[in-house]
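Quick one:
INPUT:
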């Protein structure tokens, strides 16, 4: 999705037009996949379980950074949606839209690298094999529940 967003930014620069439907789709993808599903598992399960462990100062700092970065990602998305809504109303927010889309393409690769290369591998040392297996099972249940939550929200929009 980050690659697609990069392409769309170039198209916006060339055409001087944004596609509100693409923005809605990209935001839905990021909110559901990156934030609610991926970050949800981190915040609701991994970070919760890490809080019960004696993390090294370095690992604790990285976990705190990741939590702050999740908030930052949500802020970018909120600002993008505000700019898109204003664009649809006829306001000149094209530069803000491009800026926020570009922010996403810069933010997520660095954030993912920090998770995958630093925190996740290091965090495993704090857990026994049984604890890790239990956490993986909780991740699976979390993922299964997400699809139901998503479409419950879709249905509620029409009631």
């Amino acid at each position: 999705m980050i690659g697609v967003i990069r392409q769309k930014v170039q198209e916006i620069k060339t055409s001087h037009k944004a596609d509100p439907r693409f923005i809605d789709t990209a935001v839905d993808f990021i909110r559901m996949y990156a934030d609610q599903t991926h970050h949800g598992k981190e915040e609701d399960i991994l970070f919760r379980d890490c809080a019960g462990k004696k993390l090294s100062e370095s690992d604790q700092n990285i976990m705190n950074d990741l939590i702050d970065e999740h908030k930052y990602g949500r802020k970018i998305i909120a600002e993008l949606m505000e700019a898109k809504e204003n664009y649809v109303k006829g306001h000149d927010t094209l530069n803000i839209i491009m800026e926020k889309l570009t922010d996403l393409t810069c933010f997520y690769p660095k954030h993912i690298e920090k998770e995958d290369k630093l925190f996740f591998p290091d965090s495993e040392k704090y857990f026994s094999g049984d604890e890790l297996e239990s956490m993986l099972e909780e991740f699976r249940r979390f993922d299964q529940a997400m699809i139901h939550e998503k479409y419950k929200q879709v249905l509620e929009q029409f009631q």
